[in-house]
Write a structure and sequence with these properties.
Radius of gyration: 16 Å
Largest sheet: 6 strands, mixed
Strand content: 35-45%
Strand order of the largest sheet: 2-5-4-3-1-6
Distance between the termini: 27 Å
Number of strands: 6
Structural class: alpha+beta
Helix content: 10-25%
Number of helices: 4
Length: about 140
Protein backbone atom coordinates (compact mmCIF):
# COMPACT_ATOMS: atom_id res chain seq x y z
CA UNK A 1 0.00 0.00 0.00
CA UNK A 2 1.35 3.42 -0.93
CA UNK A 3 -1.16 6.25 -0.81
CA UNK A 4 -0.18 9.92 -1.00
CA UNK A 5 -2.04 13.08 -0.02
CA UNK A 6 -0.58 16.56 -0.56
CA UNK A 7 -1.56 20.08 0.42
CA UNK A 8 -0.06 23.45 -0.52
CA UNK A 9 -0.19 26.46 1.75
CA UNK A 10 1.17 30.02 1.89
CA UNK A 11 1.81 31.32 5.42
CA UNK A 12 0.88 34.92 6.23
CA UNK A 13 1.83 37.26 9.08
CA UNK A 14 -1.77 36.87 10.26
CA UNK A 15 -1.24 33.08 10.50
CA UNK A 16 1.85 33.67 12.65
CA UNK A 17 -0.07 36.10 14.89
CA UNK A 18 -2.98 33.65 15.32
CA UNK A 19 -0.60 30.79 16.11
CA UNK A 20 1.20 32.95 18.67
CA UNK A 21 -2.09 33.81 20.40
CA UNK A 22 -3.19 30.15 20.48
CA UNK A 23 0.12 28.58 21.53
CA UNK A 24 1.87 31.37 23.44
CA UNK A 25 4.92 30.94 21.16
CA UNK A 26 5.77 34.62 20.80
CA UNK A 27 9.51 34.38 20.22
CA UNK A 28 10.98 37.50 18.68
CA UNK A 29 11.89 35.58 15.50
CA UNK A 30 8.15 34.98 15.07
CA UNK A 31 6.78 38.34 16.15
CA UNK A 32 9.49 40.79 15.01
CA UNK A 33 11.41 38.63 12.58
CA UNK A 34 14.96 38.08 11.51
CA UNK A 35 15.83 41.09 9.43
CA UNK A 36 12.54 41.79 7.71
CA UNK A 37 11.31 38.15 7.67
CA UNK A 38 8.98 36.66 10.29
CA UNK A 39 9.52 32.94 10.88
CA UNK A 40 6.54 30.61 11.29
CA UNK A 41 6.23 28.58 14.47
CA UNK A 42 7.03 24.88 14.10
CA UNK A 43 3.47 23.92 14.96
CA UNK A 44 2.22 26.29 12.25
CA UNK A 45 4.48 24.65 9.68
CA UNK A 46 3.16 21.28 10.85
CA UNK A 47 -0.42 22.49 10.35
CA UNK A 48 0.13 22.33 6.59
CA UNK A 49 0.35 18.52 6.75
CA UNK A 50 -2.83 16.86 5.47
CA UNK A 51 -4.61 14.19 7.53
CA UNK A 52 -3.23 15.28 10.92
CA UNK A 53 -6.44 16.97 12.03
CA UNK A 54 -8.90 15.37 9.63
CA UNK A 55 -12.08 13.87 11.06
CA UNK A 56 -11.74 10.10 11.38
CA UNK A 57 -7.97 10.27 12.00
CA UNK A 58 -6.33 9.76 15.40
CA UNK A 59 -2.55 10.19 15.43
CA UNK A 60 -0.95 7.66 17.79
CA UNK A 61 2.69 8.57 17.18
CA UNK A 62 4.51 11.49 15.54
CA UNK A 63 8.23 12.04 15.12
CA UNK A 64 9.48 15.08 13.20
CA UNK A 65 12.71 16.87 12.39
CA UNK A 66 12.55 20.57 11.54
CA UNK A 67 15.35 21.10 9.02
CA UNK A 68 14.98 24.68 7.77
CA UNK A 69 12.94 27.77 8.64
CA UNK A 70 9.70 28.79 6.96
CA UNK A 71 8.91 32.50 6.70
CA UNK A 72 5.77 34.55 6.15
CA UNK A 73 5.08 34.55 2.43
CA UNK A 74 6.68 31.15 1.83
CA UNK A 75 4.69 28.53 -0.05
CA UNK A 76 5.06 24.99 1.24
CA UNK A 77 3.82 21.67 -0.08
CA UNK A 78 3.21 19.04 2.56
CA UNK A 79 3.01 15.36 1.66
CA UNK A 80 1.77 12.39 3.68
CA UNK A 81 2.48 8.98 2.22
CA UNK A 82 0.75 6.02 3.84
CA UNK A 83 3.17 3.11 3.54
CA UNK A 84 1.64 0.28 5.56
CA UNK A 85 -1.70 -0.61 7.07
CA UNK A 86 -3.05 -3.11 9.52
CA UNK A 87 -6.69 -3.85 10.24
CA UNK A 88 -7.59 -3.15 13.87
CA UNK A 89 -11.29 -3.92 13.66
CA UNK A 90 -14.19 -3.88 11.23
CA UNK A 91 -14.16 -0.08 11.46
CA UNK A 92 -10.51 0.89 12.04
CA UNK A 93 -7.17 0.67 10.23
CA UNK A 94 -3.72 1.44 11.68
CA UNK A 95 -1.55 3.18 9.07
CA UNK A 96 2.15 4.02 9.06
CA UNK A 97 3.02 7.22 7.20
CA UNK A 98 5.96 9.31 6.06
CA UNK A 99 5.66 13.09 6.12
CA UNK A 100 7.59 15.83 4.34
CA UNK A 101 7.17 19.57 3.90
CA UNK A 102 9.06 21.32 1.10
CA UNK A 103 9.26 25.05 0.29
CA UNK A 104 8.63 26.33 -3.21
CA UNK A 105 12.38 26.61 -3.83
CA UNK A 106 12.80 22.86 -3.17
CA UNK A 107 14.18 23.16 0.37
CA UNK A 108 12.92 20.38 2.64
CA UNK A 109 11.85 22.03 5.89
CA UNK A 110 10.34 19.11 7.79
CA UNK A 111 10.47 15.32 7.62
CA UNK A 112 9.00 12.68 9.85
CA UNK A 113 6.94 9.62 10.44
CA UNK A 114 3.69 8.82 12.13
CA UNK A 115 1.24 6.11 13.00
CA UNK A 116 -2.43 6.96 12.52
CA UNK A 117 -5.65 5.22 13.36
CA UNK A 118 -8.09 5.80 10.48
CA UNK A 119 -11.66 4.89 9.90
CA UNK A 120 -11.97 2.10 7.35
CA UNK A 121 -14.12 4.46 5.25
CA UNK A 122 -11.35 7.07 5.07
CA UNK A 123 -8.72 4.43 4.35
CA UNK A 124 -10.89 3.17 1.49
CA UNK A 125 -11.36 6.70 0.16
CA UNK A 126 -7.62 7.31 0.25
CA UNK A 127 -6.93 4.01 -1.50
CA UNK A 128 -9.08 4.90 -4.50
CA UNK A 129 -7.02 7.89 -5.65
CA UNK A 130 -4.24 10.31 -4.83
CA UNK A 131 -5.78 13.45 -3.36
CA UNK A 132 -4.32 16.96 -3.69
CA UNK A 133 -5.66 19.68 -1.41
CA UNK A 134 -5.12 23.42 -1.76
CA UNK A 135 -5.60 26.23 0.68
Amino acid sequence: MSITRTATRVFTPEDIDACARLTGDMGSHHMIGLGDRRMTQGVLTLSAVPLLAEPGVHMRELSFAFLAPVYAGDTVTATVRLTESEELSDDLVLATCEVSVVKGDGTTVLTGTGIAELSRALAGELATETVTEGS
